[in-house]
Amino acid sequence: MPDHQAPLDLLLLPTWLVPVEPAGVVLKEHALGIRDGRIALIAPREQALRLAAQEIRELPGCLLTPGLVNAHGHAAMSLFRGLADDLPLNSWLHEHIWPAEARWVDEAFVRDGTELAIAEQILGGITCVADMYFYPEVASQVVHRSGIRAQLSIPVLDFPIPGARDAAEALRKGLHLFDDLRQHPRISVAFGPHAPYSVSDDKLENLRMLAEEVDAGIHMHVHETAGEIQQSLQQYGERPLARLQRLGLLGPRFQAVHMTQVSDADISLLMENNCSVIHCPESNLKLASGFCPVERLWQAGVNVAIGTDGAASNNNLDLLGELHTATLLAKAVAGNASALDAHRALRMATLNGARALGLDGEIGSLEPGKLADLVAFDLSGLCQQPLYDPVSQLIYTSNRSCVRHVWVGGKALLDERQLTRQDAQQLAATARQWGEKIAQRHHA
Ligand SMILES: CSC[C@H]1O[C@@H](n2cnc3c(O)ncnc32)[C@H](O)[C@@H]1O
Ligand SMILES: [Zn+2]
Question: Tag placement on the chain: N or C end, fewer CB within 10 Å?
Answer without folding.
Answer: N
